């Protein structure tokens, strides 16, 4: 782990991707000195800021002030919040704003918001003039620990999520830990599922630390910054090994095969289930399924369940309000997501806490049986 | 030069870009055996073909037959011909076709057409699932010697040409030299301006060869294939040295600063001026301007003029039908294109035939004076 502490309470995670290397700064009140961080690290003269209504009302003025104080010309576009914003018309609007403002290759598009804004603005930054600088200022926990790191950008299509996009690494990530104070409890918890995921993938010590310290992570302060930094480091490690997702990066999908199926089965209705909640249930199921295949102990599955329950996340399919999806619907969603090849699918399984692995030959029939039993309970 | 001859009359230019390396095959009737070339070189099971009406009527069936014979499932989209097709709605339509057909990362989008179709389809291939395979089957001379090589893709915006796009190298280029037989004489000549350009940049022997053999190039047969292969090799050499255009790749803009200004001044009205014609005039002007700055001899400028005139290309601003643009309009266009920095602009100048170089400090006032004199003649 190479998380380093710079100025008071500020952590830096370096992502060593050659000529696309960048730093992630993590600390309180970073938005207020974004201008200084950006101008001292990148030669940006102009910035086109993309944000959503919820975030703009809290942080846009502060960001603009800081940039202008440091001599950066700014324009901004505030979009409606929500997943629907990850589509073609908003993308065209962002590109048009950037081009109207004559953003050049060395100028920047800045994403100020959650993963929706980050994915959209990053895609625009990847295609305007075939690539301009990109600065992420993630404001949700999920975007601070997951979507702002790794360079995946994109929008949704009527055929599915994230089907159009580019790999475009940011030039700088500023994770303002105090901005999370205005995030809803539910969104914070959903993001926390991804934090716990890093422990479960390959950092048993981190998972243990979370079991002890999660209340401090929720409360804010150094424990929160520490959890975010370790999460970023975990994701960065995987991304550096496998930037374009051909192998190991698949580990990041722990809990996501079941999770995506649940999201699809609830029609992406966020009043019933948000992504991180699906992942929480999915991680518990992945551990139980591994135990059922005699790969891991049932005690580990119970430990995962206990921790996620403690923080207030759902851990059972039956925790989802409304009618339960039948097994067939879930299996269809899994087959869609994973392209079943001659009855086999790729799944992230585990030998225990922090011992996940990519299994390429899981029998679809085994998954189906497991889901039937789970739903029958 | 490493142009190699494979089967009868087929030339291969290899573009060594590491894990993005690819081959350009050049020869007669390649469309008819495209299926074999594609399946033997890439593991493509499905292909989404993008083309335009002019090209589809001549070659689409032939391509589809060849692919299906070799077991490749195909879908296709035929768009209106012309520069307007390089815009957002057609891009969305191409992406949607590919996603509807469930094109996966190892499947391909195929561009069958000129530079418009290549730029559009290549952009789609760069963003569908964050990148799928891309096969270029360029059918205009310009696209065979220029736009199909190098990985620049894109569409236009209301703010200017090619402002949105990605770098996405093709996996294979099939340049069918017989397909050029159906190209209009005028489009062929326009593409030829770019062929001559490679000689003028840094291959004096090639320019001399063209002076002797241009009639055979226009007639078809081995001389045409040879000229295309050397052109591709020339462009590939520059691209390999400078994939993302930070330095040497600028040499490819020989004749283009004046050319673009003339295109802009004639409102991109192709009945008056097409791109290659603007480049032809621009190359003559670049050589005259270099002579005027005592960098090259006037004899060289005359030689360039004589050759381009011989093949039937325009060589004077006054060759453009309709009213002549005043100097100010041209200077404005040049300033727009090149971002004049404190009165200086970057220009491709020359010490003589095949001795072009990038000049970073050309005084805008010198260019203006030269243009005034040129227009006054
Ligand atoms: N690119 C990647 O690698 C990657 C990885 C994971 C997820 N994602 C994407 O991220 C998106 C989900 O991200 P998300 O959960 O951040 O969603 P989001 O951007 O929709 O944010 C969630 C909600 O919180 C609000 N919000 C954000 N920050 C706030 C703050 N500080 N105060 C008050 N409200 C705030 C937003 O307005 C929104 O209503 C999905 O589209 C997903 O596909 C991308
Ligand atoms: N990506 C790059 O590096 C690059 C480089 C140079 C130019 N370009 C782009 O290329 C485009 C110009 O390319 P172009 O000149 O091929 O234009 P184009 O694609 O419009 O083709 C010119 C015309 O010829 C027709 N045509 C093409 N092949 C034919 C054939 N075999 N038989 C009959 N008709 C045929 C087309 O339908 C069209 O009407 C511009 O948009 C330019 O920006 C891109
Ligand atoms: Zn996730
Ligand atoms: Zn050109």
UniProtKB/TrEMBL annotation, chains A, B:
Keywords tagged on the record:
Amino-acid biosynthesis, Aromatic amino acid biosynthesis, Cobalt, Cytoplasm, Lyase, Metal-binding, NAD, Nucleotide-binding, Zinc
Listed binding positions for NAD(+) are 115-119, 139-140, 152, 161
* EC class (word): lyase
Q: Which residues form the 3-dehydroquinate synthase N-terminal domain?
A: 77-189
Q: Which family does it belong to?
A: Belongs to the sugar phosphate cyclases superfamily. Dehydroquinate synthase family.
Free-text comment on the cofactor: Binds 1 divalent metal cation per subunit. Can use either Co(2+) or Zn(2+).
A GO molecular-function annotation: nucleotide binding
The cofactor required is: Co(2+); Zn(2+); NAD(+)
Name recorded for this polypeptide: 3-dehydroquinate synthase
> Pfam families, alphabetically?
DHQ_synthase, DHQS_C
Binding of Zn(2+) occurs at 194, 256, 275
Stretches assigned to the 3-dehydroquinate synthase C-terminal domain? 191-340
One GO term under biological process is:
chorismate biosynthetic process
Question: EC no.?
Answer: 4.2.3.4
């Amino acid at each position: 782990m190479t998380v380093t502490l710079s100025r008071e309470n500020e952590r830096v995670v370096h992502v060593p991707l050659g000529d696309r290397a960048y730093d992630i700064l993590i600390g309180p009140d970073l938005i207020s000195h974004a201008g200084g961080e950006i101008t001292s690290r990148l030669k940006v003269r102009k910035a086109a800021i993309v944000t959503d209504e919820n975030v703009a009302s809290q942080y846009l003025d502060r960001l603009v002030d800081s940039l202008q104080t440091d001599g950066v010309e700014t324009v901004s576009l505030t979009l409606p919040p929500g997943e629907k914003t990850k589509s073609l018309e908003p993308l065209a609007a962002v590109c048009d704003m950037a081009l109207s403002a004559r953003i050049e290759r060395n100028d920047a598009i800045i994403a100020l918001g959650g993963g929706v804004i980050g994915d959209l603005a990053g895609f625009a930054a990847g295609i305007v003039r075939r690539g301009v600088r990109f600065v992420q200022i993630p404001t949700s926990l999920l975007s601070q620990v997951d979507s702002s790191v790794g360079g995946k950008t994109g929008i949704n299509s009527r055929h599915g999520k994230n089907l159009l996009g580019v790999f475009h690494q940011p030039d700088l990530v500023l994770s303002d830990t105090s901005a999370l104070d205005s995030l809803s409890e539910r969104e914070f918890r959903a993001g926390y599922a991804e934090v716990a995921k890093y422990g479960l993938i390959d950092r048993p010590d981190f998972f243990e630390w979370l079991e002890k310290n999660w209340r401090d992570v929720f409360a804010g302060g150094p424990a929160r910054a520490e959890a975010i930094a370790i999460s970023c480091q975990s994701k960065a490690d995987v991304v550096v090994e496998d930037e374009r997702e051909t192998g190991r990066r698949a580990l990041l999908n722990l809990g996501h095969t079941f999770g995506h199926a649940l999201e699809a089965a609830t029609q992406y209705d966020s009043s019933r289930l948000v992504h991180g909640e699906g992942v929480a249930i999915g991680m518990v199921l992945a551990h139980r399924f591994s135990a059922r295949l005699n790969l891991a102990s049932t005690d580990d599955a119970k430990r995962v369940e206990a921790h996620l329950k403690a923080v207030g996340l759902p851990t059972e399919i039956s925790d989802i309000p409304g009618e339960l999806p039948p097994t067939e619907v879930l299996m269809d969603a899994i087959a869609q997501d994973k392209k079943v090849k001659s009855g086999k699918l790729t799944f992230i399984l585990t030998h225990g806490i922090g011992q996940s692995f990519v299994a390429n030959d899981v029998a679809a029939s085994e998954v189906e049986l497991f889901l039937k039993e789970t739903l029958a309970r």
